[in-house]
Each structure stands twice: as C-alpha cells, then as structure tokens.
Model the fold of this input.
Amino acid sequence: MPTPRTFEEGADILRRLSAAQFPNFGAGEWLQQFKRTWKKADHRVVLAYDPKLATILDGIDLERPLENLWGQFDALARVPLMVIHGGNSDILSRETVAAMRARRPDFDLIEVPDQGHPLLLDGPDIIRRIAGFVALCK
Done:
C-alpha cells in the first residue's frame, strides 16, 4: 500500500483496495477505518502498529496448500471458544467456519455481514456479545 499524505488520501486508498469486502461503507467509515491503523507523527501519516507484523507471512507460499491446523483447533476442546467472522472475509472462509462448527458445535459464532478483514467490532451488539463471552471465561 502506498504511504498516504493525508488521512483523506489514505481513506481513499483503503476504499479502492477493500471496497468489495466492505460494500456498505461511505466516506466517513473509510476515514474511520483508516484512522484505526494510521496516525499523525512528525507532520506525516505513519502506521499505528509495527509493520514487521506482516513478516509473519513471509514464509507462506500461497501457491501451496497450507498446513493442516485441525490438531491445534481440536486442542481447544476444553476451553470456551468464540469465532468472529466477517461475511466477506478473504482470510476465513464460510466453508472453514462450517468445518469448525462441525468439529465444535458449542462455540459461539458472531457472523458480521458485509464486512471483511479487519472487522470493525464497534457496534454495541457486537461489543455486548464479546463482553459476555469474556465474562464467561473468568
């Protein structure tokens, strides 16, 4: 992604890159989304998180199938589990969520329509559901 000069320019870049995942966003939502991941520092716009986080993906060859992780998923059998899935996600497919449900029918699923990745998680209903889940885990 190019480095934007202003928040507005950054919001426009995000819109061009992610409009398919967030079809209901208007200009205000794009600006809000941009401000969640970028900040002003020294009179310029910079990432608000460590860009080295993306290096975790360096070793992944997208042309090859990913390693099977069901063993790790199954190891969570005795702990409460919540999955928050964006209906337009290009990271977690509906098929994978269905396979997770088949293996673990008791997990709490929040399906967020018309959003991809990253999810906003800012509506009162979603916040209430997440808070209720966290309270169960105490």
User: Anything to note?
Assistant: Residues 124-136 form the longest helix (13 residues). Strands lie at 38-41, 44-47, 82-86, 108-112. The mean pLDDT is 92. DSSP finds five helices and four strands in the chain.
